[in-house]
Amino acid sequence: MSEEITGLSDRVREALAITKRGCDELLVEAEWIEKLKRSEASGKPLRIKLGLDPTAPDIHLGHTVVLNKLRQLQDLGHTVIFLIGDFTSLIGDPSGRNSTRPPLTAEQIKANAETYYKQASLVLDPERTEIRYNSEWCDALGARGMIKLAASHTVARMLERDDFTKRFQGGVPISIHEFLYPLMQGYDSVALQSDLELGGTDQKFNLLVGRELQKHAGQEPQCVLTMPLLEGLDGVEKMSKSKNNYVGISEPANDMFAKTMSISDVQMWRWFELLSFRPMAEIAQFKAEIEQGANPRNYKVLLGKEIVARFHGAAAAEQAEADFVNRSKGGIPDDIPELALTGAPMGIAALLKNAGLVPSTSEGNRMIEQGGVRIDGDVVSDKGLKVEAGSFVVQVGKRKFARVALS
């Protein structure tokens, strides 16, 4: 144990452990400990900032890694500032990108922000969340203030950022306004006098700029907490809608549970650490029980039900487990869509597409080749099958069903 964390109260030790759980980096740990000690002594909550540019309205479990951390810190009594980057969204965040991100319109930003916060409130405690918009101080900064802010950093310092370096060396254009983005994000920390700012690992440079600008403004610099990017259902790529390896927090409970059950036994522990609110000691006990012969599936069920209950409630989590068990036994869910189609006899691939079970006939043929298509429980192996008029249940994969009346 380092000298810096000896002689701490149990409350501060607990807060430090909760802060560091699953994190990539905590900078600077010794400073954070001092902030926690001061907060405990004074009873004054620390100000914890998360800045979000509402570039897309839908949140998946990967986004909740940071939101979960915020909720844990809220539960310790601290104030969370949910900062909507309505001004910085007009610039476009270049972090982690090899090209300029197009800016959004004010209307897009407003609509996305409202949807985003509504979803985030499923994780955060709205009563202990301060919602701010950075146009509040950025608009007031004006041209004079912007030039003064730009004078605080050099081009060489900006080019230390990995994505800027790669673009510069690769001859990919960097617009001047992109250099302003980390400065404006850092200026948010000055305006809010934040004690801690959270972000993904791709935001580290921007978060550190906030520290420098706070020092420049005569403030105590914020600490920086970076959280890892959650791998998606494939266990390899980061969770992303574009890679179709995501679990959306507004998805139906049954789909959310089934997707969680599809992850590997190894990946399950990563999800437990970053998505579960269970104590790490309890998770360690789960590992020990599996090593002694317990079935990993039983613990994945606990994880899936915890995640579903957070967004849909405990009753929905129980129902989702029952639905999953029913499907795994070849049963048909109760809540499948019903639709009427005309055109019998209809080719099986066209039927799958018209029923909304696959995006195209070629995808339908691919699923047939893989043995993933059933009609009334019987596997379809003939891509040339013509389906006659009648009523039947069509299934694609483990989770897609439709009750079709074909005439």
UniProtKB/TrEMBL annotation:
It catalyses: tRNA(Tyr) + L-tyrosine + ATP = L-tyrosyl-tRNA(Tyr) + AMP + diphosphate + H(+). A motif ('KMSKS' region) lies at residues 238-242. This is Tyrosine--tRNA ligase. Residues 346-407 form the RNA-binding S4 domain. GO terms for biological process: tyrosyl-tRNA aminoacylation. ATP binds at residue 241. The keyword S-adenosyl-L-methionine does not apply. Its EC number is 6.1.1.1. Belongs to the class-I aminoacyl-tRNA synthetase family. TyrS type 2 subfamily. A motif ('HIGH' region) lies at residues 54-63. Its main location: cytoplasm. Catalyzes the attachment of tyrosine to tRNA(Tyr) in a two-step reaction: tyrosine is first activated by ATP to form Tyr-AMP and then transferred to the acceptor end of tRNA(Tyr). It is an enzyme of class 6 (ligase). One of its GO terms (cellular component) is cytosol.
